[in-house]
Amino acid sequence: MTTSSLAVSECTLSSTTHANKSRHTFSSLKGKTFVVKLGGSTLEYQRMVLQDCICLHALGASIVLAHGGGPMINEWLTKLHIPICFQHGLRVTNAQTLEVVRMVLCGQINQELVAMATLLGGDVVGLCGTDGNIVQGHIADESLGFVGEIDAIHPMLVRQVIDDGYIPIIAPLGLAPNGSCLNMNADLVASRLASALQASRLTFLSDIDGIYGSDGSLVAEMNEAEAQTLIERGIITNGMIPKVNACLHALEDVPCVQIANGRTPHVLLHTLEDLPLGTRFVH
């Protein structure tokens, strides 16, 4: 069995009806680009997500996987007795914290994802936002330290990796004008990458089902006005604020933007079938 055949067989769904629908849905993937943001909180479910990515790639889609790593960064900061501080959902990053961020994102998480995807039969390449000047930015706020605000995305290297038949797996760091490294919010990197690549779909995988409204129920569809209202009321808070803003920004260029639960088996396949999963952002 070839690598591609193995990848497809591993994510074949059991229901005959569902499988028939899947074949119809997945028959027109060639030429489409899907950007997936794998949140740090869902890294323990990375195997299933990687299987879906490899399957869709084998079926003709161009897949770009961006990842975070907040919980693991926190673990290392705690081990090293370095204070953890957030402002408006963004990590305050001094020079010492930045060293840990770089070590965890590039030296640990990215390499582990590449190794696991390769073991599953995928053709993948690990990248960092500083490679090929993919993510260019500047310090967003002096009080946040080395936290970057994105000025530009240069997707040439990512496109080259895709054209060569690989899935790029990207760690969210960026370059400042002086060549220093910046800690970038992974949601915003995924959003801007999806726009730059003219992606057909951007999916944020988190450890929750989506966005919940004031009554505690899941919101299936959300527009910008509704999102801003929930932020003002303090219902959307902390790290969900930049995630929601990233979704709204991407919606300007990407037809389908969605937050879904990364713990759901074969969640990427289900979202492609437009099943009622997560929260989808609309104009």
Automatic annotation (TrEMBL):
Pathways per UniProt: Amino-acid biosynthesis; L-arginine biosynthesis; N(2)-acetyl-L-ornithine from L-glutamate: step 2/4
EC code(s) of this entry: 2.7.2.8
Catalytic activity: N-acetyl-L-glutamate + ATP = N-acetyl-L-glutamyl 5-phosphate + ADP
Entry keywords, A to Z: Amino-acid biosynthesis, Arginine biosynthesis, ATP-binding, Cytoplasm, Kinase, Nucleotide-binding, Transferase
GO biological process: L-arginine biosynthetic process via ornithine
A cellular component term, taken from the record's GO annotations: cytoplasm
Sites annotated Transition state stabilizer: 37, 243
Aspartate/glutamate/uridylate kinase domain residues: 32-253
Positions contributing to substrate binding: 69-70, 91, 183
Compartment(s) where it occurs, according to its Swiss-Prot or TrEMBL record: Cytoplasm
GO molecular function: acetylglutamate kinase activity; ATP binding
Broad class of the protein's primary localization: cytoplasm
Superkingdom of source: Bacteria
Protein function: Catalyzes the ATP-dependent phosphorylation of N-acetyl-L-glutamate.
Family note: Belongs to the acetylglutamate kinase family. ArgB subfamily.
Protein name: Acetylglutamate kinase
